[in-house]
Amino acid sequence: xxxxxxxxxxxxxxxxxxxxxxxxxxxxxxxxxxxxxxxxxxxxxxxxxxxxxxxxxxxxxxxxxxxxxxxxxxxxxxxxxxxxxxxxxxxxxxxxxxxxxxxxxxxxxxxxxxxxxxxxxxxxxxxxxxxxxxxxxxxxxxxxxxxxxxxxxxxxxxxxxxxxxxxxxxxxxxxxxxxxxxxxxxxxxxxxxxxxxxxxxxxxxxxxxxxxxxxxxxxxxxxxxxxxxxxxxxxxxxxxxxxxxxxxxxxxxxxxxxxxxxxxxxxxxxxxxxxxxxxxxxxxxxxxxxxxxxxxxxxxxxxxxxxxxxxxxxxxxxxxxxxxxxxxxxxxxxxxxxxxxxxxxxxxxxxxxxxxxxxxxxxxxxxxxxxxxxxxxxxxxxxxxxxxxxxxxxxxxxxxxxxxxxxxxxxxxxxxxxxxxxxxxxxxxxxxxxxxxxxxxxxxxxxxxxxxxxxxxxxxxxx
Length: 463
Ligand code: DUC
Ligand code: ZN
Ligand code: ZN
Ligand code: ZN
Fold this sequence. Notes:
Layout: E1 3-8, E2 11-14, E3 17-19, E4 22-26, E5 29-34, E6 40-45, E7 50-53, E8 55-60, E9 65-66, E10 69-70, H1 75-84, E11 87-94, H2 102-113, E12 120-126, H3 134-143, E13 148-152, H4 163-175, E14 179-183, H5 187-199, H6 206-210, H7 214-231, E15 236-239, H8 245-256, E16 260-265, H9 267-271, H10 294-306, E17 311-312, H11 321-324, H12 347-357, H13 363-377, E18 395-405, E19 424-434, E20 437-441, E21 444-445
Parallel strand pairs: 1-6, 2-7, 8-11, 11-12, 12-13, 13-14, 14-15, 15-16, 16-17
Antiparallel strand pairs: 1-4, 2-3, 4-5, 7-18, 9-10, 18-19, 19-20, 20-21
Helix pairs in contact: 4-7, 7-8
Bound molecules: dihydropyrimidine-2,4(1H,3H)-dione and zinc ion (3 copies).
One zinc ion (ZN) binds near residues 98, 99 and 129.
């Protein structure tokens, strides 16, 4: 057998430790790891570099219609940013409009994504209401490879579901082997707090934080864990973008009792704090749940290191300054600022530098939460999320010594700011390979628009 490409002299890292040797690639797949004697067409010398599995960003919102705006990153810009950040697969949220059936929403998302994606991608399904035949459609959605769902306990009048509907949906999704993702914040109380602040004329971005206190995430996490536990031990559930240590602990305790409940967090909760909501450009930092205290940040790092946090997703949900300001001169009241921040391109450098280089998490844990675990959770494993023969040749190649000062100039999103402006990191993705093809090198995304593929999810694996 003659190989297409051999990656030579790199340090290869996997979730179970480093491996010695070269990687042989044929037809986009890894065929051999070790001492390679076979003939090959091309060799790439990666001395001094680290090869890790391509990241899986299991939480993006490209072309997302939300809070009267559609996110600025479409599937082309958004996945260009992913690819530049070493993310070879995203899992994006199909968002049906009011009254739309789930299958036509799925088809719309495929139609949006297929001609534009540079990375590979999978899909989750948001369910915002139980209209006529949503419950009956769940098995067909799963048959399309959409095996994970997202339900909201917040965003009253937009996405929030009452407890009865949450119960019914978790039960149905679970009957068909799907995973339920939950946005856990108490939307009723948030709505009350927002009205109280607005009445008092308190409209600045910092009131976004005061209207969504830690306890409302903790309460909602407790409530949904209780509801899901009632459905039974087969329920597979994960709490998305967890921002408090206490919410992680609730879920870990259920896991100790045998439940398949997990947490995701995002790099922004690990690296930024509430002070950002006092800056002149505070409107850029409005996302939900809100940025929290340094005490919570520290709690999250500890729980990431211990394995209590299962995955990292970016919640990439980008709005331009104009959109954040709702096309007005002045910053609108905090509750009218579209919620969301960029993030898919900076998962790797932030987690590698502030986590691995600073000695807080191991390289193995970094890989586990950024590729192996999301692949398992979203039914993409072993095609994705690991370096072994038979898997797709998806790699992020890190120069561990490369120093970069983060600015919009080094990033690829369709906006002209970053929430990490001026942050200095050491360790940067310098090459991305997707199914054996170099799609990013020397700061340039060279992967073609539409060259990414839809990867249908299979049965989720949760230990
Ligand atoms: N939170 C955000 O900040 N943006 C998108 C949706 C969400 O839950
Ligand atoms: Zn509706
Ligand atoms: Zn959410
Ligand atoms: Zn989200």
